[in-house]
Amino acid sequence: MYSWSPSAAAAWHRLLGWVAKTAAVDLTVLDQSDPTSLDDLWKREDMGCVFMYGYPWALRQDRPTLLASPVPSPPRYGGRAVYVTDFIVRADGPHKSLADTFGGSIAYSTEHSHSAYNAPRFHLLSYRTAGRPALYRTVLGPYVRQRPIIDAVITGEADVAAVDGYALDLMRRHDPDAAAKVRVVETTAPAPSPPLVASPGLPAAARDRLIDVLAGAHRVAEARPLLDDVLLARFDRVTPADFDVFLARDHAARDAGYPKLA
Q1: Closest by Cα among 176, 171, 174, 134 to 149
Q2: Residue 16 in contact with residue 5, Cβ under 8 Å?
């Protein structure tokens, strides 16, 4: 989910490999790069330690088991297990503000993505008026993953897209040339970070070891550079109630008569 470049993918392999080894849980680290369906991944019954966005997790009736959530290290996250959505435009394009993109095209990955759909839909509520209930002429998607919607902005196919801000921070570290081709024009309120989850069938003892290792990784000297490489300060334990905000923002948009990006 956060492997937007080869070096980022390698960094996650090192960190998750260390977690599995330290927790003594036999995990196979998969290369889940585009165009792999995250929906298919999240339906698997053999998930041991998998990132899953909080919005689709909250929407599920058969919710996977929560392990821990990442705390990004960049200052804008305030040392909390949260992330934000950044509205991006082409760096050399004409748009200087989010309002400049209204009347144009917006790209999204999937409707159950918080960062690419639920968060921007909630954020855009403040811009809608009775005389302007729709903000965009064209809504492009689904692109399935978020890297393709960044590419759509870079190529000029879309005027704007909303993307996971933490993933964009990772992109600046691991693929700075691509990151330099887009500019952030506005940022949403924070929301709980995508948690690491496991399938309910994972044995309780293995689950508990994974949680303990994740929650304590920042205190282990050999893990510290692994966390640094993916811009993480630590992992925090989480509860189901932490993710209620996703449904609240979904309901707010629907109640306001804005069930779809438009």
Answers
A1: 171
A2: no
- Under 8 Å between Cβ of 162 and 122: no
3-state secondary structure of 93: coil
What is the mean pLDDT of the segment spanning 22-47? 83
Q: Tokens standing for 98?
A: 């989010």
Token output for 1: 């989910």
Cβ–Cβ under 8 Å, residues 130 and 94? no
Nearest to 97 by CA among 188, 183, 190: 183
Question: Pairing mode, if any, of strands 82-83 and 138-140?
Answer: unpaired
Whole-number Å distance between alpha carbons of 3 and 5: 6
The residue whose two tokens read 């990772």 is 170
Contacts of 247 (CB under 8 A, 6+ apart): 58, 59
pTM for this predicted structure? 0.94
Beta-ladder partners of 106: 139, 160
Angle (CA) 58 162 109, round 5°: 65
Q: Beta partners for 235?
A: 70
Cα dihedral across residues 174, 175, 176, 181: positive or negative: negative
Average pLDDT over residues 89-103: 98
Q: Return phi, psi of residue 69, to 5°.
A: -120, 145
CA distance 252 to 254: 6
Phi, psi at 130, each rounded to 5°: -60, -35
End-to-end CA distance of the chain: 26
Confirm if 116 and 170 have CB atoms less than 8 A apart. Answer: no
- Chain segment 193-209, per-residue pLDDT in tens: 999 999 999 999 999 99
Q: How many CA atoms lie within 13 A of 71 on its CB side?
A: 16
Amino acid in position 124: L
DSSP class of residue 190? P
